[in-house]
Design brief:
Bound molecules: adenosine-5'-triphosphate, magnesium ion
Number of helices: 9
Radius of gyration: 49 Å
Strand order of the largest sheet: 4-3-7-6-5
Distance between the termini: 9 Å
Length: 463
């Protein structure tokens, strides 16, 4: 379909080449990178911080433990008071300690109702730590040795279940994930809102352009933001300038017609007089013939100038019914013994982007020919698809041979000189149609009956 008839259609808002989709993809990318980065570093930092805290706590506890345990002269171990952290008293709480004097005695926290701590971590006087098997699963175990004068070496070990640390980290990560997901959603929603609101003027511009193209408006209408206003202003100025140029061309074409017609009529008069005189008959005839050719060319060029100049100007449109109805009634008066029928399966409301004067001219030419050569009936058929600019004028006359069809649109061609006419109609009709991206085709009737079918249709894209 030619550009002039391409349907405006709903704007393809989320097409892959749309600004909207691009901005939204950029927002999505940045939000995922930003939120992902925050999530990653926050969980890492938190894990590090919690580990650090556990380690510091255990070091303090093991020092406290070492301060509380006494070795009695008989080699027995006793404590002045329990450790200050009550979790060492709750059975299987995950917090355990153990002190032993090898070969003599081992004492354990009240929380250690079963199992034992691995003493190997306490192998010298500095505090070491390992992950060892504890009473309730893997445990972070701290330990060191201290000499008890006369009693040997006392092994101190203290442990916290690793699961407690992991649980704290998992809890934090879960909560962080929920909050950051909510934040990401809010950011994407904001991006979406900004994109839809921010690009709305472009939609309005697209609608205004569509109205212009469909002929519903003569300029781009509406208020636009400062970024778009200059563009819209320039476009409107361009449209106005174009319209003025076209108007001027039409006026000049009309003036030219008037300027040439009168001298040509005077010349034709003189030529007729010469043709009636015996001595100048030949010269008079030649002048008459040439004058007629000149008149044809003037008429043709004027029709061409006025239609082609007006073609495709923004804001030009005709409703097919409004143009066709008066022409049909004029044709019924002009050819009273012929029947003019209209077949419009989807009504006559279609709007064609063609100047109404040009469209009327085009349809009059086709209907006048059909009326002149038909025997009984002329049928006008509109396309079944409402928005398709397609129309056929079908008559039941003698029709034309393929060879005649090939030449019928040439200037001054007439195959039936018994019928009045100048042989310009089809040439002008084809010119007007071409200027609006329409194709005029003549063909024998599709149903095989005698007659001619003149069809107007949209040129394929790029044609
Ligand atoms: N519907 C038709 N049936 C048969 N012949 C046709 C039909 N339409 C056109 N023709 C033939 O094609 C020729 C050219 O048509 P065209 O409309 O250009 O000129 P015209 O009708 O003779 O003159 P004009 O339209 O300028 O008054 C006609 O003279 C006629 O011989
Ligand atoms: Mg004609």
């Amino acid at each position: 379909m030619s550009a002039a008839f391409a349907p405006a259609g709903p704007a393809r808002r989320w097409h892959w080449r749309s600004l909207r989709l691009r901005i939204l993809l950029a927002v999505l990318l940045w939000v995922s990178l930003g939120i992902g980065g925050i999530w990653f570093s926050a969980t890492r930092l938190f894990a590090k911080h919690v580990e650090q805290q556990y380690h510091e706590e255990l070091e303090v506890h093991i020092k406290e433990l070492a301060g509380l345990v006494r070795v009695a002269p008989d080699g027995r171990l006793r404590m002045d008071r329990p450790l200050s952290d009550p979790r060492y008293l709750v059975p299987l709480s995950g917090y355990y300690w153990q002190v032993s004097l090898p070969g003599r005695e081992t004492i354990r926290s009240a929380s250690m109702t079963r199992g034992r701590l691995d003493q190997s971590v306490a192998h010298d006087s500095t505090i070491h730590h390992h992950i060892e098997d504890g009473p309730t699963g893997p445990a972070i175990t701290y330990g060191f040795l201290r000499d008890a004068p006369g009693a040997g070496q006392v092994h101190y070990a203290i442990a916290t279940d690793e699961r407690l640390l992991d649980e704290a980290i998992t809890r934090f990560t879960r909560e962080l994930t929920v909050w950051l997901s909510a934040l990401a959603l809010a950011l994407v929603a904001t991006g979406l809102a900004v994109v839809s609101v921010g690009l709305r003027p472009l939609d309005r511009l697209a609608r205004a352009t569509a109205r212009l193209r469909a002929g519903a408006a003569a300029r781009l209408e509406g208020d636009y933001p400062t970024e778009l206003a200059p563009l819209v202003g320039d476009l409107n100025a361009f449209i106005d300038h174009n319209r003025q140029t076209v108007e001027r061309a039409r006026v000049e074409a009309g003036n030219l017609a008037h300027a040439l017609r009168t001298p040509l009529a005077v010349m034709t008069d003189e030529a007729e007089r010469l043709a009636h005189r015996e001595t100048t008959r030949n010269a008079g005839r030649i002048l008459l013939e040439q004058g007629q050719v000149m008149a044809q060319h003037i008429e043709y060029q004027l029709a061409r100038a006025s239609s082609a100049a007006g073609a495709r100007g923004p804001g030009t449109a005709s409703q097919i019914g409004e143009v066709l109805t008066p022409i049909l009634s004029a044709m019924r008066r002009l050819h009273p013994d012929r029947e003019f029928l209209l077949r419009a399966p989807t009504g006559t409301g279609a709007v064609w982007p063609v100047d109404p004067v040009d469209l009327a001219e085009l349809l009059s030419i086709l209907l006048d020919n059909a009326g002149k050569w038909s025997r009984h009936q002329v049928r006008v058929e509109l396309a079944a698809e409402p928005d398709l600019p397609e129309l056929a004028v079908i008559d039941d006359g003698p029709g034309l041979t393929p060879d005649q069809i090939a030449r019928a649109c040439d200037i001054g061609t007439r195959f039936d000189t018994a019928m009045p006419g100048s042989g310009l109609g089809l040439a002008i009709a084809r010119e007007i149609a071409g200027a609006y991206g329409l194709r005029l085709t003549l063909s024998p009737r599709a149903d095989g009956a005698s007659g001619l079918e003149a069809r107007l249709s949209a040129l394929p894209d790029g044609a």
